[in-house]
Amino acid sequence: MPPKLESFRDFLATRGGKLTNERKAVLKAILGFHDHFTADELFDSLRARGDKVSRASVYRALDLLVSSNLLRKLDLGENKGYYEQGFETHHHLVCASCNRVIEFAAELLLDLDGELRKRYQFSTAGFSQKITGLCHECSQTRNERGSEE
Fold first, then answer.
1. Would you say the C-alpha torsion 108, 110, 113, 117 has a positive or negative sign?
2. What is the per-residue pLDDT for 82?
3. Distance of CA 111 to the CA centre of its chain
4. Between the chain's N and C termini, which has fewer beta carbons within 10 Å?
């Protein structure tokens, strides 16, 4: 059994739950994503693969995967929950026009994390920064429209 499936099975067992075929299908589909995804994108992916999983089961499985620390849920805008597998420290630039998400790492923010730990004796468990603005393409389009007026 792959390590993430085994870890999820063990987590479920501590809560009196089982690793059902639906939950296995959800986790296997998630492993195919290499970027942020929404519950709807995951559901569509499962259906396209021919898996018989209800939308409600997808949402419940996602909640359990977040609780088990196998996934992280993010607020990147659009009033949607986004999910990602990676837990390495990184941050997000979110385009306010097209909703494109660009991941980045920033040493300055890591320095800030260290300073907060030192100054407030606060043991952080990690953090994620979301910065909104315009991506290059949307910024160019807006500038081109502005010069035409």
1. negative
2. 82
3. 24
4. C
